[in-house]
Amino acid sequence: MSPTMLKTIAVRRSQGTQYIADLRRAVPAGFRGKPLIADTACADSCQACQSVCPSRAIELVPMRIDLGRCVLCGDCEPVCPSGKLGFNNDVKLASTRREGLVVTAARAHIDPVQVSAALHQRFGRSLKLRSVSAGGCNGCEMELNATGNVNFDLGRYGIDIVASPRHADGLVLTGPITRNMAQALEICWDAIPEPKLVIAMGACAISGGVFADSDALDRSFLEKVTPSLYLPGCPTHPLTFISGIMDLLGIAG
Q1: Looking at residue 56, which CATH number applies to its domain?
Q2: CA dihedral 180, 182, 183, 189 (to 10 degrees)
Q3: Half-sphere exposure of residue 103: CA atoms within 13 angstroms, side-chain side
Q4: 125, 237: one domain
Q5: Is 61 exposed, middle or buried (0-12, 13-18, 19+ CB in 10 A)?
Q6: Of 71, 104, 137, which residue is a domain's last?
Q7: Are strands 58-60 and 63-66 parallel, antiparallel or unpaired?
Q8: Pair 152, 209 in one domain
Q9: Residue at a domain's end among 104, 125, 147
Q10: Which ranges carry the 4Fe-4S ferredoxin-type domain (predicted)?
Q11: Whole-prediction pTM
């Protein structure tokens, strides 16, 4: 056996098994996920966490973090003198309600995804999605691509990303929706046959994220179309995407 072949085998062996057998139980090491708000008092007149938040995701009275805005940067945690804020590595951050993404000390859990009986009946065995990057930075788009790789293999559940809206059952929206992409987004949505759904992936798609106040945006599309699923993150982790879709469609896994 050649030295090159031996080296290849050694590298492959060192990598171990890349395939994730049980996506429901997978917990990524080092992932900053759901915010944790301790039931302790803030320091007097302290606004440190709110001041460093780049997307205005934090409100102080009462303390609340909006995961629809939060970019999971974690900058709020080290500046909090009372240790009130933290994050765990929970990837199950999706919600079917925009309001369900708000975390407080009294409401520590994100609203669980509500299974849609209608969507389960129509798409529970096969769902084709068209991705539209509406001015995104390519972070969420790369994570969406990763859902189909050897690690996650979303296609095993009959869920695929397709090239044409004519072949799609729904649209995955990423990016804050710039004016330059607003019409293209509308055209793509109109080309998807009924019945159809929209999935908002990432803080930018959900709220505009760090670009929410930019006059370069045109988010009127979301005034007409309500997403069936909100997937927080910056970018959204593949496991957040997969678990959210599976919960929405009632797929056991």
Answers
A1: 3.30.70.3270
A2: 140
A3: 26
A4: yes
A5: exposed
A6: 104
A7: antiparallel
A8: yes
A9: 104
A10: 33-60, 61-90
A11: 0.91
pLDDT digits (tens, 9 = 90+) for 206-222: 999 999 999 999 999 99
Query: pLDDT category, 124, cuts 50, 70, 90?
Result: confident
> For the segment 91-112, what is each residue's pLDDT rounded down to a tens digit?
999 999 999 999 998 888 888 8
Measured CA to CA in angstroms, residue 95 lies from 59, 117, 157 at distances of 20, 16, 20
- Domain containing 139 equals 117-249
Q: Model confidence over 39-69: pLDDT tens digits?
A: 888 988 999 999 999 999 999 988 999 999 9
Count up the domains in the chain and report the number. 2
Residue 175, in any domain of the structure: yes
**pLDDT, tens only, 144-172:** 999 999 899 999 999 999 999 999 999 99
Length of the chain: 253
Residue 72 sits in the same domain as residue 168: no
User: Which one has a higher pLDDT value, 16 or 253?
Assistant: 16
Q: Return the residue matching tokens 């090239």.
A: 163
Q: H or E segment at 160?
A: strand 159-161
Which H or E run contains 12?
helix 3-15
**At which residue do the structure tokens 């996920």 appear?**
33
Q: Tokens 């690690």, residue?
A: 151
